[in-house]
């Protein structure tokens, strides 16, 4: 009887633990990754030439706790922020082969810059909702002021539309770290593996 009574006392605690493990945190699904499009693709750009990029993503997400899984319009544009690192390839660095640059300008024709923290970590964009409320979009142009070999890599799981090619051969001369792109931004080391999903180009 004592053993049975002890089980009755402990069983609510056991059930509480099991219930906690089954608890699902509600919230909206993650936005789809942007696919960045380079409008004027080229292997070589002139100094101060504008490289135009645009991207769009669906504005509809679903509530993970809604069994109907109906899509819901999200009006908070910060949920759909986009961004990328603009890097200059450099094989003369110790343990790195690219460096984040600040010698460039960004012009927005759609959307606006999104500043995060005191350190310029990336080119981050706050998109705008389309007139039909179906997508979030941004369009910007980057202008680089000094010659060299460059690479644009993703920050928020963005990819490039590589139908026209991404000029990956440019990276061959800098592939000193086992097919990895490594760079330092604001004291943190970032790594991107391979060349797929990135865009390489030369400014001269």
Beta-strand content: 35-45%
Whole-number total of structural domains: 1
Q: Radius of gyration over alpha carbons?
A: 23 Å
How helical, in percent, are the residues?
10-25%
Quaternary state reads single chain
Number of strand elements: 17
SSE ordering = HEEEEEEEEEEEEEEEEE
Mean pLDDT: 85
Which residues form runs of ≥5 with pLDDT under 50? 1-11
Q: What general form does the structure show?
A: globular
Distance between the termini: 88 Å
The major sheet is characterized as:
7 strands, mixed
Counted by DSSP, the helix tally is 1
Structural class per helix/strand content? mainly beta
Please give a structural write-up.
The structure is a single chain. Helix content is 10%, strand content 41%. The longest helix has 21 residues, at 2-22. It has one domain. Strand 15 and strand 16 (188-193) form a beta hairpin. With 204 residues, it is mainly beta. The strands form four sheets. Strands 2, 6, 7, 9, 10, 13 and 17 form a seven-stranded mixed beta sheet that branches. Strands 1, 3, 8, 11, 12 and 14 form a six-stranded mixed beta sheet that branches. A two-stranded antiparallel sheet has the order 4-5. The protein has one helix spanning 2-22; strands spanning 35-38, 44-45, 50-58, 60-62, 71-73, 82-89, 98-100, 104-110, 112-113, 123-126, 128-129, 135-144, 148-154, 159-160, 180-185, 188-193, 199-203.
